[in-house]
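Task: complex structure prediction.
Instruction: return structure tokens for all chains below.
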Amino acid sequence: MRPAILIALAFAVVAAPRSSTAQCSANASSCVSCHETQGLRPVLGDAQPWHVDHGFGDLCSACHGGAPGEEDQTRAHRGRREPLIAIEDACAGCHRDDAAARAAGYQAALAARPPEAPSPPPPRAPRVAGTSRPADPYLAALALALALALVVAVRRPRLAAAGPALAAAVRAPTWSPYAAGALLGAIVGTAAVALGRPLAASSAVDKLAAYLGRWWFADAPYYRYQMAPGITWQVWLVIGVLGGAFASARWSGQARWRWLPDAQWVPRFGPSRGRRLVVAFLGAVLVQVGAGIAGGCTSGLAISGGAVLAPAAFLFMAGMFAGGIPTAWLWYRRAP
Amino acid sequence: MTGVASALVLGFGFGWALHKAGLTRYDRIVNIYRLRDLTVLRFMLTALAVAAVAIEVGRALGWAGHLHVPPTAAAANLVGGVVFGVGMATAGYCPGTIVAEAGEGRLDAWLAGGAGLVVGALTFGLLQPTIMPVLRGATPTGRGTVADLLGASPWLVAVVFALAVALVLVLVRRVGRPSEPARTR
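Output:
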């Protein structure tokens, strides 16, 4: 057997799922993933003002302790304090100037609490990490299909034998947007059904940038309490995107090093590489800030969120066009 | 292990689709905002309709576990979208296509795109405690879907949505085709 086929088969074996992992701690802490996202004892929408006030972020463990990186319920609840860890210290983490005053409010509320108010047990047991999800056949089918495509694609010299239509599709520089969109839709659907995950490119950036954030801005509340660095599922997804785009470009003869966009840029902005780098940098900054504010990017919010018909996705898309159309007009108002 | 493999496989297909749709091209991304090339719209709407129906099929067959529904906070979603759109129409990038452009060998994506994303993430991290409570507090928040809001069956909503998308795609099929010469007003 040729080595390329062996590699592709090994890939298929690895990719064929045996048991799925729980989706807790995909992006947010496992507190928010289990309590809120999976709805196993949600608190952020309740009438308690402190939960509503702090609901903008993933701040549970700052006041309640626990191990927000753990996916298993028992381990995640280890170190949790009922009802609160040292109140003034918890407040001082973010509200350095008036921590004592804020803590006094909580102490008063605690004192007014009925003496025995044990928290009710969760209504149903959370999914345990490592249990098999019924979606495995779905994922297995997709993995096999992609592996098969890879076998065919890797053996490019004999592509024609595998089917001229398939060979032409692999080598085509572009596909109809409907065909490419349907492929993306199938992938988004698989990720949602089989894994309960969005395809969130901006989340991968957040997780990687947090390594620098924790180091440079150790005192910033966002990096102290919310955004933990990590090589998450989304980071591996982005590595896959790099490979997929390279494969598509390579096999259609389009992969090559270049500094400038192929069309439209040079007539408008000139051949300067420096100008392209500056404009591209500023645009990328805005894109990532916008994704942070909105709660996701084109892939994670607009497409993955729109696919489950979340209102957030459609509001985000409306905002994208409201910002993008005037901007494009400003850049190109004097262009022919 | 399985998680890494599924991420790599799905990411591979995602990157493949982005490249085959031509979304690694600056002009194609920018021209959606000039309404001269609607490829991005066709690509995204097709993906949305297929995924929405696929998810409902997966749920009906009992394959779906918990679905991730992004939280809605209208002001934050809208304002974030506006900032995102300004950046996208300027650079011709979104976070996913920067990675795909890097895979295609574009050095501006490797250098300026990568650095910009990291700087943007850090900027948001520092701004977050100041701006997010204001934006999230401005409008009601929730984790429902459109079906929850309407009190309708998710099946019905997904099918109506897919049909509406198909109708829109048919209606705009002659608008903004890149092969056409640029329209002049």
